[in-house]
Amino acid sequence: MNQHADMTNADPKGPDTPEERPLVGIVMGSDSDWPTMKLAAEALEEFGIPFEAKVVSAHRMPEDMIAYGREAHDRGLKVIIAGAGGAAHLPGMLASVTPLPVVGVPVPLKYLDGMDSLLSIVQMPAGVPVATVSIGGARNAGLLAVRMLSIGDNELAADLRAQLLDFAQELRKTAIRKGQ
Length: 180
Ligand code: RP5
Known about the structure:
single chain; alpha/beta; Rossmann fold; 2 domains; 42% helix; globular; disordered N terminus; binds 5-O-phosphono-beta-D-ribofuranose
């Protein structure tokens, strides 16, 4: 597990202080999902959110997956971001055993352009919600987690507002260049 040095910003020895404790769990069905899922990690890093990242396959490590989901809330996680490709049951299965919000990321594989992953994740039965982002949309999954954490955190909300203003500034510059 954690075969990529950059798969987590949590201290591998375990956090020393409450500030270092991961608030977001990024989980994925395989380390081959990491090139997609690291976009979520990058978004969290931009806002200074501590996270952990792990491979927890629904089909190949079912006991580990259920244990991860059952323990996540008590370990202090606030949001789970779960990505998988193909028959992508990981986000839904985690949502079935945790009260935490789960954001699902459909990872595109070689066949079907990620439509298989999307449909596997998005069509949850009523009562077991997964907030599904677009195919490969891990950056938005990270930003959605930041938004969830910003509820009751004015500083984080201000940072998010500033980012939205930056978007507008950037686009205005583009318009001016085009107008020249
Ligand atoms: C899924 O199967 C994983 O989430 C991954 O997207 C896909 C392929 O996994 P590997 O064969 O690369 O391990 O469960």
